[in-house]
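User: Fold this, then the next.

Assistant: Folding the first:
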Amino acid sequence: MIALAVITIQNRYLGYALIAIFFLWILVVVALGSLLYGRRYLLARYIRSIVKSGGSRRVVPERLEVRTGADLQDIPDDFLKKGTEPNVLFVSSNGAGLGHLTRLMAIARRLKCNTSFFSFSKGYRAVSQLGWKITYFPSYDKERISRSLWGSRLTAAFRSCLITSQADAVVFDGTHVYPELTEICRYHGIPLVWSQRGLWKAESFRRSWQRHDPQLVCDHLLIPGDYAGEDLHGYPDRPFQKKYNPVIFFDLDECLSSIDARIALELPEGPKYILIQLGAGTINQTDEFERVVVESVRVISPNWVPVLVRSELSSSNRAPEGALLRRCYPMGRYYNAFDAAVVAGGYNSVQEVVSYCLPALIIPNLYTKTDDQELRAKRLVDAGLILSTTASHELFDKLSLLVSDDVRIAMRERMANVKKENGAHAMAEDIYRIALSSKEWWPIISEPSSASSG
């Protein structure tokens, strides 16, 4: 540095040039060091594989390019061998309910490979109860610590989970990708897939730089479809982006028959049942709407029995007088037990009632941060698929229409005309191929034996 200072004094322009070259050299060294260090655990896996094989010579093919869609069909079948299944780590944000986790599980249960979860949601127990391994990390708003301290703890926890699971791909479902996830995935060379539900509120769309430039935080953008269509902002064509049909947990052929579903829920044969599931998770209280719905149904027709289904996140074990209470998750398998439904306007509930052709009254939650449930309900009402209201004083009239046989028959017919195949299958297939193309492959080529070489 002293020499550079002397040169700069004697020849200013030469000195500036040498200083620039010096700092550029430092940046190159740091970049190369980060790249090599970021692949350290993959290199360790390679060394261990050589040791286990007894020193067999291995040929390392060129790393496959990570792509989505039809281009992934050209992955050689030679890679699809026993013992070569990739590992996929699913990550859900801390939503108000179980929506993010439910979408991820709908995809994960259709993946023919190793899957595990990392979640910020308090509903994480629902995942473990269904047989998956899950790591729970409390969201920032639940911890009374600084954001920087929380972020450093997240970095340590997520990196540990990533390495323990030996993930070949990470799939995130939420409205904001945590920067720690992006940094760690790119540090280790693991593709980050963003499953991004559409229909954002205008203000949320305007504020989210990630929505405008998703390539800065993810490698692939997969968009589950919505029967209500896209939001007002749409999605420009991008090479790393793909759209799918609406995603639901259970396929139609997995649902129980009406009789079996009622037996499973302990609902006696005879009356008609109306499902009430207003969700809302932890965003706001729905007790008043539930009470008005139950009272209205009982007044309109004594032949209808209201059945409240509570969220896994709800601590309430009480139901309004005249209603039955059930706890059941996931709910889709039992929809045939009901003749109609009153549900919230969230993504999962709406896709399910349309897919299962269950006549429904949608009560959109107006207090969500990102999900435009009011727009979703309005579009489906315009299409004649559902009924909807946000005012408690309108519930009686809407429910009177819903219990009408003619109205429900017409709604079922229109739903049957628009329902699509479950998009979870196609998403699972593409995620599998993304993980597969990311995995490090070293096919063993045995050394010639002495007998054959002689």
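Now the next one, as you asked:
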Amino acid sequence: MAQQRLALWNAEDLEEDVDLSMAIGNYGPNVPYEDTHIAQPQIDESTLIAMQQHMAQQAAFSQIPDVVKSFIVHFHQAVLDNNLAEITVAYESGWNKYTEKFYAKTEWPEAELIAPLVNDDPIFLILYRELYYRHVYSRLQPNIDDRFHSYENSCELFNYLLNSDGPVTLELPEQWLWDIIDEFIYQYQVFCTWRSKVTTKTQDELMMLADGGPVWSSYSVLNVLYSLMQKSKINEYIIAQREGKTPEEIAEIVGEYGQRPLYRMLGYFSIVGLLRVHVHLGDFTLALKVMENVELNQKSPFTRVTACHVATYYYVGFCYIMLRRYPDAIRTFVTILNFIQRMRQYHTRSYQYDQISKTADRMYSLFAICHALSPTRLDDTIANTAKDRFAEQYAKIARGG
């Protein structure tokens, strides 16, 4: 058979008038290929933008250092396990370590970028954003989007804590719980100051503020703090402890929320937060009224967090000054300033040393004013330190001019 085919193709007696075009069709080299009949793929603008964003996210994700990725994974696992020891180390040490090393002058990666590392865990991403925006406020300059988004994230966090079906199982260190309340009030305070400077705003910023509704309103901030107090029944807990109730009686009084350390400490810190907010709003009598069940002594729970301890005495002392209770103010400032002096070595190692030191400087100034208006020999060490720091101003106040 093969020989027959070979003979056929080697035949020399093929007719010369055979029309080869009938055999090979119209696909000769001189016929151009037409592609107009092939449908071109249509990509709408939204799909194109999504593809570009995905590519940009992949590029940004690849820029995150591997040690930071590992840290975030470890941090997330510690939160999932409610491992307070590991969470504390990650929060107080790891976060600040990598901030100084990689993000001292820039933002941390956005939550959406690191979401794949934590399996899109919504609760951890809320906590991560809380740290993210706190970093923006402390190290960088927040823009209007940061201010609005930080408020939205705070609302998500407090809605989760207050409106879930029963108490949440989340456990966080007391230091972090205080920082959540403290930062919430700080961002509210900064927003109010920023909003009041109307002449520096662009037209777009003015429109966003006009449409912003309750963003960082005094009512919304007060509502959160009072809700945490009521949910935790912290005042009932303090009174029951003072009356010597048994743990079983206290548990029955405070209910399922008040029994959990997370809610109890958030309620306690909310009392101090309300003290601060009412001072900013100028209602010094109500500020002290909120504190009526809290004893200012070394056994109070707020003393376990140094920053809260210092802030409590500072705002209570400030209230006394504004109500012209100068001896009470002096006594308050002397107590906390002596504490800071004794613990200075520890504070120097603390990542919050700068904040505590600045608050101490303000208290020395207020002490000097009180001491000039109401001289007393309560503590010569503090008085001498204040005179050394503000010698000229101190002399002018003493002369009445």
